[in-house]
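Hey,

Quick one before I head out. I ran the complex with 4'-deoxy-4'-aminopyridoxal-5'-phosphate overnight. Inputs first:
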Amino acid sequence: MNRSKSAALFAEAKQVIPGGVNSPVRAFQSVGGEPLFIDRANGSTLYDVDGNAYIDYVGSWGPMILGHSHPKVVEAVCRAAVLGSSFGAPTALEVALAGMVRQAYPNMEQLRMVSSGTEATMSAIRLARGYTGRDKILKFEGCYHGHADSLLVKAGSGAATFGVPTSPGVPADLARHTLTASYNDLEQVQALTDAHRGDLAAIILEPVAGNMGCVAPLPGFLEGLRELCDSEGIVLIMDEVMTGFRLAYGGAQERFNIRGDLVCLGKIIGGGLPVGAFGGKKEIMQQLAPEGPVYQAGTLSGNPLAMSAGLATLKLLQEPGFYQQLEVKSAYLEAGLREAAEQCSQPTCLQRVGAMFCTYFHPGPVNSFADAAQSDTDAFGRFFRLMLENGVNLAPSQFEAGFMSAAHSQEDLDRTIDAARKAFAAL
Ligand code: PMP
């Protein structure tokens, strides 16, 4: 494939943008090669500036569950743009979207719109701290919750160690308030809550972890966290930025029948425009300014273009059979990829929950970041590049989920499986 225009743009971009990209994983660093510069996208297909077409399983990292440029979403955004793109004042659109979200997530008794997933989780953490009057939080290794300081912390060496910052610029004094545990390890969480009794404001997690591939909660894990939070007065924060409106209309919480005290959303609720939301129990949410003392704000929060895209998207997701069809396609792709992987000289393990999936270059099962980290990332990089050459766009990292959309056709799925067969055999 000729990618000379992408290459020229990347060279130019590196002069004015650090690493040539506005978000690090886009740079292809962990898979080798150079990023595609995108010209346009339609349905399941992405077109780069050189005119190459790719079947897209990134979907802008999750939001494009309807496929790209869905005509009804485009129409809604255009209609809104004509009426004014930002007012910094309340609108009927944001009330309507908040109402729709609350219907799907009844534990979000009240919610606030923000402009990214990072803002949603950062605000939820501050609110949980303000509400409980406690400073410490607990997160899981391999779960990503955006790049706010408190959340950019990886695991310490032992269960009881305090977090160390993953990035320079995060003060160690702040990072020490973030404890980390291994995903799916309830005993470790119990030990940490025992050791820090009365100090923990919140436990935050991805109810299905898509930022280390695709890791499902083991039976009892979510229930155990719920019980622990109830008995210790800890705020349970379900970060459904990725899983919300994807694993079911009501997200992972509907799918696993478990409820957080606070919930973070993003990606799909904005239909591809910059949106996030956080919400939960009224008693907690009422601590927010102007009703309460915990400050949180945003010039573009509730932006009318984003609200319109979100409303149009959620209405389409309510169509009967939407999630069943997504499941059928995802199961078909899973079966095809599994069969294709039999040609691979290396052990692989495909994990899928609904319309999220990941092929690990590791025999599996992968239940934690320690498991995921054993994957052969070089093999993944080679697989990724072969898939790209065969016209399939996967996320450029072993530690990211693939996303199915409603726009993927049977032909797309068969072409993907065929490409995978060739790529696995060539490894
Ligand atoms: N939480 C989760 C679970 C995410 O997957 C992400 C982004 N991938 C975020 C939070 C941060 O969202 P954003 O990139 O919109 O800031």
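The longest strand covers residues 200-205.

Talk tomorrow,
K.
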